[in-house]
Amino acid sequence: MTKIICVVNDEVMEGSGLKKEHGVSFWIEMQHANVLFDTGQSPEVLSHNLQVLGLLPINIDALVFSHAHYDHSGGVAAIFPERTTIPLYANSDLFRARYSSKDDVYKSIGMTMKESDLSHYFYLKLSDDPVEVKPGLWTTGTILERPERMGISKHHMVHTQAGWEHDPYQDDLSLVLKTSAGNVLICGCSHAGILNTLYHTEKVFGGPIIGVIGGTHLISADDQYLDHIVDVFQDRYPDCNFYLNHCTGKNAIDRLMEKLGDRIHMINAGNTVEFPE
Ligand SMILES: [Fe+2]
Ligand SMILES: [Fe+2]
């Protein structure tokens, strides 16, 4: 079995002793390797939660960043290896400066570490293409086609030669776990759009998709769009289970649960989902 353990999330399992924070991190325990997907936003919370869950940073064989935002990359110092021994996979657009703008104040929300500093600890493997992280576990690569809505915040900005522009979220990727029963999509924030990410995964890796885990950035989706999501989940992914957290948002989880019943689950820090090899 492959175990996917939620280590950091905005909500934690009651009575678990875990700390919550806005962010996400998953420990993926495969037969021959452990992969950490995102690190939450602070080394303190990641370190505490790993310890409570009995997971040792020294046993991590590879790290993957879903995208640059601080709530996914900021906890990385909790798992620094003593020397460069493990790879860090991410999109090639990872180190572009990213900001949140409110009332003309621009706050940096991208990577907190420079490429040159991070490369002291990890073999940086930045790519736009799908990459096999470990046998049976792939990155999606850049989500190129985006016919459906992206998971945006109107405050997310980048600075270009033309001036301030909305973040195109080129860095956003998810992981695809290949199992004997079908593919499982593991998402960080799904800024590229959860439906775009699903379509891309089917196109690149085939089907069926039997599970979706993580943040789907439906937090600001209105009911009309949520009903469109429900229709697509029903028509195109009838055998898929959804384990949602982080930026999915309570309103979206409640509405999806109401319409799709027991195919929708919450996955908080401390919760584990298992899939056959
Ligand atoms: Fe994000
Ligand atoms: Fe996020």
Notable characteristics:
7-stranded mixed sheet, Metallo-beta-lactamase, Chain A, 277 residues, binds fe (ii) ion, alpha/beta, 30% strand
Verbal overview:
- This protein has 277 residues and is an alpha/beta fold.
- It has a single domain (2-275), classed as Ribonuclease Z/Hydroxyacylglutathione hydrolase-like (Metallo-beta-lactamase, Chain A).
- It has helices spanning 43-52, 70-73, 115-118, 194-205, 223-236, 250-260; strands at 2-8, 25-29, 34-37, 62-64, 86-90, 99-102, 105-108, 122-126, 132-134, 137-139, 156-160, 163-166, 175-179, 182-187, 209-215, 241-245, 264-266, 272-275.
- The strands form three sheets. Strands 8-5-4-3-2-1-18 form a seven-stranded mixed sheet. The chain has a seven-stranded mixed sheet with strand order 9-10-13-14-15-16-17. Strands 7-6-11-12 form a four-stranded antiparallel sheet, with no helix packed on it.
- The longest helix is centred in the C-terminal third of the chain and has 14 residues, at 223-236.
- The chain is globular and about 50 Å long.
- The protein starts with a strand and ends with a strand.
- The model has no long low-confidence stretch (mean pLDDT 97).
- Bound molecules: fe (ii) ion (2 copies).
- One fe (ii) ion binds at residues 67, 69, 189, 191.
